[in-house]
């Protein structure tokens, strides 16, 4: 027993956190390789390395995953100070990290740094795939930076091969992500690049992208659904997500066949981003002005939001609640009570629909709070659910309003 414990303790020293071990770079020039400021970490690795997000078999492990900034040529290499030896650990083998990564990577990645560096000069020949939809500038710290958004499709020459590399990032930044079916031409892609100059020549660095699937809507409409949205860490918190969504929106506004726009299982962060963009747009609509929202949600709001902004009724209602909060004096107990009851009335709807939204409640409540059906919940459980959900919504709504206020200064 004692010997087994010693071996187990020794093996623990060879475990490391995959989130910390993996190091990404978007390489524009050779000097970026040694520049620690160009590195960034994954948000998650459980989709590759299990729920514990751990790698076994190495001490001081670094997993270098470098991409050329434009073409996304890929280099993968492991560095470590020590590797577990099966001869001294009862045959225990280290994890085959490269094999795990290779199962999700294009087959042409390299583990030879010289080979990777030899491809960098070809970055100057890169031209974004598809159609340029929007260009904008961001000025930060006195530096002006230019960004462009392109739309590509399955049929866009060369894009499928490019997307095969681009999509590898989603496994590290989007929970429950999966690669899309590239044989389905209803997929549309919106790719964000930074455009910069090197020796007077225009160059590109990928900054993020969005995938959209166009569903059929009877009788002759389509309903685009936003599937994946990713802004890479070096470009986050610079309003690129809002620019990407608004660019997509602007294109939809011009298309009569678009009925409305939906989103596939939005994360909390994406929901806040979507709310921010939708609230900004609805502030320009007559039916969402202060006097209107104070009177309560109505069909006119849903109709105007759908006709002019392609919003679903559900999202229009959410925008209304955010703007109603903005128009509410929360220090006035009676006024805030009316607002609270208005929101809770909507939140209470699943309890009044004989379980139509049962699955959502099942996801929201603890197992011991939910037995067989929605109707089986006690009054206390319902009230607790409503209060917690209301407070969660208010926190998100305030976040959106604070950002709205900051952008209007």
> Which structural class is indicated by helix and strand composition?
alpha+beta
Helix tally equals: 15
Q: Please state the oligomeric state of the protein chains shown.
A: single chain
Fraction in helix: 25-40%
**Main beta-sheet annotation:** 6 strands, mixed
Say what the CATH topology of the largest domain is.
Arc Repressor Mutant, subunit A
Cα shape: globular
Going across the biggest sheet, name each strand in turn. 9-10-11-12-13-14
Low-pLDDT segments: none
CATH arch. level architecture of the largest domain? Orthogonal Bundle
Mean pLDDT: 92
CATH level-1 class of the largest domain: Mainly Alpha
Strand content: 15-25%
Tell how many strands the DSSP assignment holds: 14
Count of domains: 3
């Amino acid at each position: 027993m004692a010997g087994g414990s010693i071996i187990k303790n020794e093996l623990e020293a060879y475990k490391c956190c995959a989130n910390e071990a993996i190091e990404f770079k978007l390489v524009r020039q050779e000097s970026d390789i040694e520049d620690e400021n160009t590195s960034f970490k994954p948000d998650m690795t459980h989709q590759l390395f299990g729920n514990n997000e751990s790698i076994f078999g190495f001490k001081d492990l670094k997993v270098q995953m470098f991409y050329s900034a434009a073409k996304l040529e890929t280099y993968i290499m492991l560095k470590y100070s020590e590797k577990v030896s099966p001869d001294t650990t009862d045959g225990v083998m280290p994890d085959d990290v490269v094999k795990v990564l290779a199962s999700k990577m294009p087959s042409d990645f390299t583990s030879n740094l010289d080979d990777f560096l030899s491809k960098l000069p070809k970055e100057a020949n890169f031209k974004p795939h598809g159609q340029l939809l929007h260009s904008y500038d961001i000025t930060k710290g006195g530096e002006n930076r230019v960004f462009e958004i392109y739309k590509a499709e399955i049929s866009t020459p060369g894009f499928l091969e490019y997307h095969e590399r681009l999509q590898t990032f989603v496994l590290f930044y989007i929970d429950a992500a999966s690669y899309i079916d590239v044989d389905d031409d209803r997929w549309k892609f919106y790719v964000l690049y930074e455009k910069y100059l090197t020796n007077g020549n225009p160059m590109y660095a990928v900054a993020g992208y969005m995938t959209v699937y166009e569903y059929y809507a009877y009788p002759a409409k389509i309903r685009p659904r936003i599937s994946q949205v990713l802004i890479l860490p070096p470009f986050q918190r610079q309003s690129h997500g809002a620019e990407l969504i608004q660019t997509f929106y602007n294109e939809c506004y011009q298309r009569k066949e678009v009925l409305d726009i939906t989103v596939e299982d939005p994360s909390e962060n994406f929901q806040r981003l979507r709310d921010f963009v939708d609230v900004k747009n609805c502030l320009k609509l007559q039916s969402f002005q202060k006097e209107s929202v104070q009177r309560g949600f109505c069909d006119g709001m849903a109709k105007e939001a759908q006709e002019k902004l392609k919003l679903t009724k559900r999202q229009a209602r959410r925008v209304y609640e955010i703007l109603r909060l903005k128009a509410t004096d929360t220090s006035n107990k009676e006024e805030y009570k009316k607002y609270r009851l208005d929101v809770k009335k909507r939140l209470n709807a699943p309890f009044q629909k004989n379980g139509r939204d049962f699955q959502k409640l099942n996801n929201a409540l603890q197992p011991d709070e939910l037995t067989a059906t929605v109707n089986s919940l006690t009054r206390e459980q319902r009230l607790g659910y409503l209060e917690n959900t209301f407070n969660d919504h208010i926190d998100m709504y305030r976040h959106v309003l604070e950002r709205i206020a900051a952008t209007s200064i």
